[in-house]
């Protein structure tokens, strides 16, 4: 049996009782280590679970999945995922491969950023399409995610922005030379995401557009959701470029039209409450 087990968002103790029971009896336990991260390391998980964990990076999961599934054909194997197992399409691919090979699987769910963002007070059923904001480089500055944000905004919907994570990534030079040398891990902050969005706003204006999303659009910055040192800040997109939320992981929400209760909740985390007085147009009618 292949078990896909969600670990939740905080630390080792966020695993469900059902998930922990399964981990303790599985012969092999893999820890997916590239789509997200907990606030504790592998060693803390091993101590709490009482089991040795095998780190599964992107290369292992995407290119060597047959090794994981070969084990699952012989014994019970657990595949641990931060958040919920289906927060990333890679894990759907693993399930499809297992089914094709005739290997039974079971999913044990947990909280993910997709629903935990409700902690800021914005109602989950008012969210539109989720977008990923990627790190720009000197030669690659995609803006496609901004168009999706604008579409959500036009429909009065909130947008959850998942911010880029670079773990065990190779530089272009080392990749071309075939050198297995990896860059240091990088985690995008709310500040960096806001700066890129502000740059896109300026680019669109230079092209003669007046974008739906501007410097004064209300946003929410979230850091380490689910952890004891979780932080939330609400304010304009401009304010998000300077707000200090500490270490990773960060995510950001671009607010759409809001119910008065949503506004009252966001005011609890306001960088400056006057920002809400200037954004009455975002109040739901």
UniProtKB/TrEMBL annotation:
<dbReference type="GO" id="GO:0017183">
    <property type="term" value="P:protein histidyl modification to diphthamide"/>
</dbReference>
<protein>
    <recommendedName>
        <fullName>diphthine methyl ester synthase</fullName>
        <ecNumber>2.1.1.314</ecNumber>
    </recommendedName>
</protein>
<dbReference type="InterPro" id="IPR004551">
    <property type="entry name" value="Dphthn_synthase"/>
</dbReference>
<comment type="pathway">
    <text>Protein modification; peptidyl-diphthamide biosynthesis.</text>
</comment>
<keyword id="KW-0808">Transferase</keyword>
<dbReference type="InterPro" id="IPR000878">
    <property type="entry name" value="4pyrrol_Mease"/>
</dbReference>
<dbReference type="GO" id="GO:0032259">
    <property type="term" value="P:methylation"/>
</dbReference>
<keyword id="KW-0489">Methyltransferase</keyword>
<feature type="binding site">
    <location>
        <position position="250"/>
    </location>
    <ligand>
        <name>S-adenosyl-L-methionine</name>
    </ligand>
</feature>
<dbReference type="InterPro" id="IPR014776">
    <property type="entry name" value="4pyrrole_Mease_sub2"/>
</dbReference>
<feature type="domain" description="Tetrapyrrole methylase">
    <location>
        <begin position="1"/>
        <end position="178"/>
    </location>
</feature>
<dbReference type="Pfam" id="PF00590">
    <property type="entry name" value="TP_methylase"/>
</dbReference>
<comment type="similarity">
    <text>Belongs to the diphthine synthase family.</text>
</comment>
<dbReference type="InterPro" id="IPR035996">
    <property type="entry name" value="4pyrrol_Methylase_sf"/>
</dbReference>
<dbReference type="InterPro" id="IPR014777">
    <property type="entry name" value="4pyrrole_Mease_sub1"/>
</dbReference>
<feature type="binding site">
    <location>
        <position position="163"/>
    </location>
    <ligand>
        <name>S-adenosyl-L-methionine</name>
    </ligand>
</feature>
<feature type="binding site">
    <location>
        <position position="9"/>
    </location>
    <ligand>
        <name>S-adenosyl-L-methionine</name>
    </ligand>
</feature>
<feature type="binding site">
    <location>
        <position position="84"/>
    </location>
    <ligand>
        <name>S-adenosyl-L-methionine</name>
    </ligand>
</feature>
<feature type="binding site">
    <location>
        <position position="225"/>
    </location>
    <ligand>
        <name>S-adenosyl-L-methionine</name>
    </ligand>
</feature>
<dbReference type="GO" id="GO:0141133">
    <property type="term" value="F:diphthine methyl ester synthase activity"/>
</dbReference>
<feature type="binding site">
    <location>
        <begin position="112"/>
        <end position="113"/>
    </location>
    <ligand>
        <name>S-adenosyl-L-methionine</name>
    </ligand>
</feature>
<keyword id="KW-0949">S-adenosyl-L-methionine</keyword>
<feature type="binding site">
    <location>
        <position position="87"/>
    </location>
    <ligand>
        <name>S-adenosyl-L-methionine</name>
    </ligand>
</feature>
<comment type="function">
    <text>S-adenosyl-L-methionine-dependent methyltransferase that catalyzes four methylations of the modified target histidine residue in translation elongation factor 2 (EF-2), to form an intermediate called diphthine methyl ester. The four successive methylation reactions represent the second step of diphthamide biosynthesis.</text>
</comment>
């Amino acid at each position: 049996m292949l078990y896909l087990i969600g670990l939740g968002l905080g630390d080792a103790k966020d695993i469900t009782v059902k998930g922990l029971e399964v981990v303790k009896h599985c012969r092999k336990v893999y820890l997916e280590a590239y789509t997200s991260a907990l606030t504790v390391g592998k060693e803390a998980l091993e101590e709490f679970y009482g089991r040795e964990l095998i780190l599964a990076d992107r290369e292992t999961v995407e290119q060597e999945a047959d090794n994981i599934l070969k084990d699952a054909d012989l014994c019970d194997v657990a595949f641990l995922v931060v958040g919920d197992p289906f927060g990333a399409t890679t894990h759907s691919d693993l399930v499809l491969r297992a089914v094709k090979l005739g290997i039974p699987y079971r999913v044990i769910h947990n909280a993910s950023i997709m629903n935990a963002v409700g902690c800021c007070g914005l109602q989950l059923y008012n969210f539109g399409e989720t977008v990923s904001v990627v790190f720009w480089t000197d030669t690659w500055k995609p803006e496609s995610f901004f168009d999706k944000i604008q579409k959500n905004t036009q429909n009065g919907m909130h947008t959850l922005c998942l911010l880029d994570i670079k773990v065990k990534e190779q530089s272009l030079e080392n990749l071309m030379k075939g050198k297995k040398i990896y860059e240091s891990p990088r985690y995008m902050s709310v500040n960096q995401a806001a700066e890129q969005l502000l740059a896109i706003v300026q680019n669109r204006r230079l092209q003669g557009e007046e974008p739906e999303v501007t410097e004064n659009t209300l946003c929410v910055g979230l850091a380490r959701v689910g952890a004891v040192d979780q932080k939330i800040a609400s304010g304009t997109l401009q304010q998000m470029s300077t707000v200090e939320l500490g270490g990773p992981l960060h995510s950001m929400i671009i607010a759409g039209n809001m119910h008065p209760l949503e506004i009252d909740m966001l005011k609890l985390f306001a960088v400056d409450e006057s920002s809400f007085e200037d954004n009455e147009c975002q109040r739901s009618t």
